[in-house]
Design brief:
This protein is of the alpha/beta class. The chain has one domain (6-223): Rossmann fold, CATH 3.40.50. The protein has helices at residues 48-55, 78-88, 104-114, 119-132, 148-159, 178-193, 205-209, and strands spanning 6-17, 20-32, 37-41, 63-68, 71-72, 89-92, 166-170, 197-201, 213-218, 221-223. The strands form two sheets. Strands 6-7-8-3-9-10 form a six-stranded mixed beta sheet, sandwiched between helices. It has a four-stranded antiparallel beta sheet with strand order 2-1-4-5, with helices on one face. The protein starts with 5 loop residues before the first strand and ends with a strand. The model has no long low-confidence stretch (mean pLDDT 92). The structure holds adenosine-5'-triphosphate and magnesium ion. Adenosine-5'-triphosphate is lined by residues 15, 17, 22, 24, 42, 44-50. Pfam families: ABC_tran. Belongs to the ABC transporter superfamily. Macrolide exporter (TC 3.A.1.122) family. GO terms for molecular function: ATP binding; ATP hydrolysis activity; transmembrane transporter activity. Keywords: ATP-binding, Nucleotide-binding, Transport.
Length: 224
Amino acid sequence: MNDMIIRTENAAKSYTTGTVTTHALRGVTLGIPPGSFTCIVGPSGHGKSTLMHLIGGLDRPSEGSVFLDGCEISTLDNSNMAKLRAQKIGFVFQFFNLLQSLTAAENVEIAMMLAGIPEKEQASRALKLLALVGLAEKADAKPSQLSGGQQQRVAIARALANDPAILLMDEPTGNLDSAAEGEILAILRSLHAVGKTIVIVTHNDEIAKTAENIIRVMDGRVLS
Ligand SMILES: Nc1ncnc2c1ncn2[C@@H]1O[C@H](COP(=O)(O)OP(=O)(O)OP(=O)(O)O)[C@@H](O)[C@H]1O
Ligand SMILES: [Mg+2]
């Protein structure tokens, strides 16, 4: 288990709103090997995004532990958690989450600023990453001038800004048509081929079929 790049031990998460407590995750133990292509699947509302937020250090478990590269992240304070996240993890979300007032290139550069990549390297590195996702000619476009698939490719370039070992994606093709989805999948496969650890929450069978690892989440638990 110690050679896993991501690991959880009895990780649980409850949310309390007023008098109602929701047990979103009920004690999950899992390991994700480095360099693997893993899909997290399961019905809506059963805890997939919650699990993703815990393993990405966006949130802390109510109980149990989460380890990233052997380091227990569930006990880090906010600032150390943010630092570790910036170094090791790139996130891609269903709704792209690009900053609308910035160009494609600037959206990628902003992620580099947060991780302290020297300013003079930021612009050239952003262009390289946009070229990698096939968008070199759209570097100066604002998100509103891009298609959904193109916006998602900018989001992937942004996720790669700091050359993270791990890419965590929550329904990255949920809002795309099948052509755009195919393009995104091809990019993910090429990233997997160069050794990135890819973890995707998806409802899409085509993506899940290509995974090396499938984690099935059901009612806050992981089915083995
Ligand atoms: N911030 C929150 N506050 C209260 N309840 C929450 C919160 N986030 C999630 N939940 C609840 O936790 C449960 C799991 O939610 P989660 O978002 O992990 O589901 P999911 O499997 O990602 O679903 P989907 O496929 O629809 O995205 C749901 O019942 C949800 O309503
Ligand atoms: Mg979700």
